[in-house]
Write a structure and sequence with these properties.
Number of helices: 9
Structural class: alpha+beta
Shape: elongated
Number of strands: 5
CATH superfamily of the largest domain: 5' to 3' exonuclease, C-terminal subdomain
Strand content: 15-25%
Strand order of the largest sheet: 1-2-3-5-4
Number of domains: 3
Length: 193
């Protein structure tokens, strides 16, 4: 119903803004990602998602259309509400969420507060095909990376390292060198564990 709001920025906090449009103040929920991109200009334009529930009508605002698109994909998943989706976009950039889903990075999705293992897996299962199609990401690249990651993690587990700690280190290594071989991932992980 309301696709964007354009007007004078009256209030600004890390979780919400109030935008005055011709004398009407719209309270809009935002993510930290959107907050970090807001300038100190008096006049702003936010793309919005209008949500009607039994007990509330809420507006969620986004600086970019890609962030709004990811938000809408996330809330389409059973168990992910608007606040959880906003928390995900506050913890991770839209690009990180997109790539995490495309590469089946359960640890990255699960790193968001309030997202458990089952919910992270459901997000990936429900959205992977949509993300690959919408953003035209090459699925073959992400799959080979994921295979390298899985092999490295199982090797580290055999060596006696805790799975959660290993996963954090491996995700960090892959974020710095996405095309790392299994051997390189293991060598770098052993230096950091």
């Amino acid at each position: 119903m309301i696709t964007h709001v354009s007007g004078k920025l009256v209030e600004k906090s890390p979780t919400s803004v109030v935008v005055d449009c011709n004398g009407i103040g719209y309270f809009i929920h935002i993510s930290l990602h959107t907050f970090s991109q807001l300038t100190d200009d008096e006049h702003i334009k936010l793309l919005t998602h209008f949500q009607v529930k039994e007990d509330a009508q809420q507006l969620y605002g986004f600086v970019t259309s890609s962030e709004r698109e990811i938000f809408r994909l996330l809330i389409s998943v059973s168990g992910i509400g608007a606040n959880t989706a906003r928390t995900m976009l506050s913890s991770l950039t839209p690009k990180q969420v997109r790539e995490g889903i495309a590469s089946e990075d359960v640890a990255l999705i699960q790193s968001v507060k309030g997202i458990g293992l089952k919910t992270a897996q459901r997000v990936i299962i429900d959205l992977k095909d949509k993300v690959l199609k919408i953003y035209d990401i090459d699925g073959s690249i992400t799959t080979s990376n994921n295979t390298n990651k899985d092999e490295a993690l199982s090797a580290l587990e055999v060596l006696g390292f805790a799975k959660k700690q290993s996963e954090r280190v491996v995700v960090k290594i892959l974020s710095q060198t996405p095309d790392a071989s299994v051997e390189l991932i293991i060598k770098e992980a052993l230096k950091n564990l």
